[in-house]
Amino acid sequence: MKKNNVKTPRFGWALTGSGHFFKECLAIMRELADLDVFVSLAAAEVMRMYRQNLSLPPSTRIYKDTTASAAPVGNFYYGVYHTLIVAPATSNTVAKCVYGISDNLATNVFAQAGKCRVPTIVFACDTAPELDTEAPKGMVKVYPRRVDLENTERLKSFEDTIVVENVGELETALEARLKWLKSYSS
Question: What domains, with CATH codes, occur in the chain?
């Protein structure tokens, strides 16, 4: 495999069309150095609905879902990424990942990360039979379907994939990757 001349391997972060802890995920992203963000069409819609913007560190590269073949995924082949984060991940994204469907930027980067053995952290939204979540106009209660919960469980069995169920677990998983990266680069 040809390696890219990357001085520092980067985090890749795929945003999907979920509003579940969307603002919290953006806050975490703002704290990460060496970050590339993959914005699906649905994520762009959610940013507008929740009145959010991607005010991220200047070194952040942003890739938007504008090509049918999801061209930006090519960087996974060249060692550009040490970790992919898919957060927050809709039930639709989780189902597509489970069944190998890669028809948008978020699901395509997940597939390519897997094919390139890049460890992935997925913050699945549908993790309990009853959840409180923030909608654009305030908090609402949602009741994930059995199929959504089953797909989240299936995803937990994927190689090199950690599924987290809340912001605290996401932060812990990221801290573990940062610790690994520090020891790896020493």
Answer: 10-185 (3.40.50.1950)
Stretch 80-93: mean pLDDT, rounded?
96
Which contiguous run of DSSP H or E holds residue 57?
A: none
Contact 105, 72 (CB under 8 A): yes
* Longest Cα–Cα distance in the chain: 48
Helix (H, G, I), strand (E, B) or coil at 185: helix
Torsion over CA of 95, 159, 6 and 77, rounded to 10 degrees? Answer: -70
The DSSP bridge pattern shows strands 131-135 and 138-142 to be antiparallel
Taking alpha carbons only, the member of 41, 132, 25 closest to residue 88 is: 25
Whole-model pTM: value is 0.91
Tens digit of each residue's pLDDT (9 = 90 or more) over 60-85: 999 988 776 667 788 899 999 999 99
Q: What kind and span of H or E run contains 32?
A: none
